[in-house]
Amino acid sequence: MKRLKIISFVVFLMIAAVIIIGRSIKATYEKTSIDENDKSLNSEHDSILLHVNILDVNNIIDKNARFKNTAKYFSNRAYEGAPPTVPHEVEGTQIGGKACLKCHETGGYVDKFKANAPIVPHPNFENCIQCHVPVNTKNEFKDSNWELVTNKSSSEITNQALLTSPPVIPHTITKTDDCLSCHSGLGIKKVRVTHPERTNCRQCHVPKYTQKDEQDEFIRKPLVNN
Amino acid sequence: MFTQNLNRRVFVKKMATSAAVVSAVSLFPGIVFAEEQQVNLTEDNLNWKKAPCRFCGVGCGLLIGISNGKAVAVKGDPRSSVNKGLACVKGYHSVMALYGKDRLKKPLVKKNGVFVETSMKEALDLVASKMSETIKNHGKDAVSIYGSGQWAIPDGYIASKLFKGCIGTNNIEANARLCMASAVTGFMTSFGMDEPMGCYEDIDYANVFVLWGNNMAEMHPVLFSRMLDQRQKRGIKIIDFATRTTRTSNAADKSILFKPQTDLAVANAICYEIIKNNWVNKNFVETNCKFQKGKTNIGHGLTDDFKFKDEPEQIDFDAFKVFLEDYIPEKVEKYSGVAARDIKYMAALYGDPNKKVVSFWCMGPNQHTRGTWMNNLIYNIHLLTGKISSPGNSPFSLTGQPSACGTAREVGTFTHKLPKGLVANEKDRAFAAKIWGVPVENIPDKPTHHTMSMFRALDRGEIKFMWIQVTNPMVTIPNLNRYRKGAEKEGRFIVVSDVYPTPTTDVADVILPSAMWIEKTGLFGNSERRTQFWEQMLTPPGEAMDDGKQLLEVAERLGYGKYFQYSKENYAEEVYNEYTQFHAGKKHGMAPLEVLKKEAGMIWPFVDGKPTKWRFNSKYDPACEKEGFHFYGNEDGKAVIWQRPYEAPAESPDSEYPFWLNTGRVVEHWHTGSMTRRISVLHKAVPNSYVELNPEEAKELGIKNRDRVRITSRRGTIVMLASVNERGVPPRGQVFVPFFDEHFLINELTLDSYCPISNEPDYKKCAVKIEKV
Do B41 and A175 touch (CB under 8 A)? Predict the structure, then answer.
């Protein structure tokens, strides 16, 4: 009886572990965008290991739990992947650089603005104002028919070969991306990873698509010609 | 890199945190999986297609995300060697410019002072009949076309062939005259051949960058970021040499301010120092250079009958040395405001044999009453030190429009030009007539009007018909009041092809809606001689039609159809194939379409399947006919070092008008803002133009930031908001106004003086007064 109890407890633990791990992995492959046709991946170098201080992110969350959601994500972007506008005042005489990085290099709560500063995914770019501009009016010059089109799908997507294998990356990666700026604590909560401390993302997570047109498909010659 | 050591305690803590997060997820899935607001959900995948950016002359490669027949996203093309995956805020939001609600979709014809919608067929019929009527009654030179450096290559080519080859008038100009003409005459007088010898790759090799009046952080941000990137990696130096303090000055390693127009003197002083300190690369100069001087006191082109022709004269090195005696740094310091030690510092950077130097410039030296001279002087510095035509050593003239080089300069949409050579040369006319298939007598041998002269002729009534495509002169022409009145006079017929209503469409008699950028197939050519192709990705709205097609339709109606036997669907590619015959050969051969379709652009000369990255250097350029350097643009293979003195501008501040007025751009807006202002993000960042004042002077005048200020010149007056200590800070005695805003037409105040050699106006210098309202 005692043995049975222990066995059933262990079984319960195993089932619980499977559920927990399964759910946590599921949490990481919630889709934000899929791009089958993109052939333009940059080197590994640009999108990993940019943030040495990323580990502090978990502490930041504990103190000021204000997660970002997708609506917030799109509140200052014209489309998915567009450079966000700056929601606070900026000094115009500088290109940004250190002044911006002071808060945005590591992200976290900024008393001055009473808000969490998002982590910049590309702290190596200094000319911030090249892409990020402030909002100085609510009015439009002329109305526009521009529509925000997201490729977000709520349906399940298979970006895992096996239940427990690491999900592949379902979206495009651009020059300016750093996985952790979205997938860690201050990013969109849907896509937060459970293990931000590992940082070498592409060790396990590979892009879904291949660069097919770059090269002819490799076909091994038959050993024997008939 | 990842340097933090995880000790065991921290590791356990992390594990605990992770476990807690995981448990929270499993217990309260809602926390993480709450339904987010979903916006315009679409199941379609994005299709990414490549195109060069629509805006500036840097020519970034973009990938446009197309979904359900609409452009929905943009990213930088990582395969483009121009921008390597990065873009700027204009590029990232460029596709939004296609979707403004007031996009022109139907042709409009002015009847009794009001615009009436009509069909494209009727509008084109009217344009053609007005043209032939004008030609019949007033002669060929009464019709004209004014295009731009935003014409795609096929558009500009068709315009040139129609006007020069078929109708038989040289009345074709482009707004590139207002921005690049001095760069062209600079190249032509120094090297006998247009366009930079180097390429953007120079950024990866240079040790020092000198920016001549060029606010690159805002105007060429992607190239500026490439420089900053090199600074992080290799510790290069950026010197900002300018008339006001900008974001570029603040980011540079050193900012040196000079008084307007004195760049001429400082450049000569740098040459003086280089010679004095024996930094001249004697071997290079002896084998590859010659010395010349031209006329002096050459005037400013302010009157309608102004004419000028330079008369070059050979001089020798000693004469040049004597001439430079007037420009000892201590003397120049007095009127340039540049400390002699700063001049010596710049000279030392150029002179150091172990440093590779790139000079960048754009509108500062170009929009200058001595623009050609200023371009010559920068080349002088690079030629004396031999720092040219090799990786990292590059005098680099940047452009402002996406195809200022590709269309305006290479196709030659100027009154004096043909796609190859000049209308004045019989051989060039014969060559053009052969490729165009037109009788050689069709092409007139005398240039008619450059841009300023063309608008003056319109005002006087010698030109009765003007067709304006892809540009907005009723915002950009200096001394605008005169030329707007001219365009509105009785008996003038103005056709405007554009994508949005602008102050220029206001003066039109016929407005033709144009297809824009990725709504047609086209090619642009950027500052580094890179030709880029894009294919049509979207259907133009309503009856909007390519500028090139509009011209083809009118050509057909005028009876020139037999010279334009292109297919309707594929005319752009067929035109390009015809056009490249002009440039065939090692000196300007252009990449074929199949290469351009595959690659993110290709640099010409494209020889034996390879781009020529550095011209005039036998190591890299197969067109060189001798070892070492060969400046084959000039017959003797030598580049010219020009003796060009300092001369005062047409108008300087005085007691009545005590301030210099400088005009320019901001990073958010491009050209006259007709596209960028319809992009919400950009308009909201800079909703209106403003006048930048020096903070001390503002205080003295009792003007605070955002106060209303009246700014007046001898030609006009406007009231606008003051900007104090914001983006740029002019020194005492200067103000700055961005020109993009059609509500504050600063060009009503600017002066229509121009460089007598290039005929390019000076938008950077005139005198104004400032009052608080």
Answer: no
